[in-house]
Amino acid sequence: MKFIDERGRLFGIVNLVDMLVLLALLLVLGGGYYKYKGPGAIAGEEKTVRFTVIAPIQRPEAVGAIKAGDRIVSGSSFTGVVIKEIKTRPSEMVATTADGSRVLTQDPYYLDVIATMEGKTTVSGATINLGGQEIRSGKDYFVKSLTYEVKGVITEVQVK
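Below the sequence we write its predicted structure tokens.
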């Protein structure tokens, strides 16, 4: 018995090309189902995400514009992310002394901004997207509202 006959059918039953097309279609549909309904997907669970961003070395004028209660902007629209708390501290810098050693000192002018923000999002898969940005410790985050924008780094993430 031949595997493929003279008409291109496998075992004389089904055309080989048709079978390959059907198999590719089933693989694509199975992959899509696994991505959206598989073990890593948690559909429909809205959670509150609270995270902290440190924006170092900011001018005092820029720091004065940032207020608790401000809503974060993504693109040209407001998001559900709100600044809950703002703290400031003098920026630290490394200075070289007369003998050539390096010391950590505070900058007399610039400030570090520590913003605690919160929003609700649907957590699915292995990423948290909130306000048009990915939320993950160590990742850059733009604290942007209607009147200001500063770049910081996420230092802490809590999912409630």
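The CA atoms of residues 85 and 116 lie 5 Å apart.
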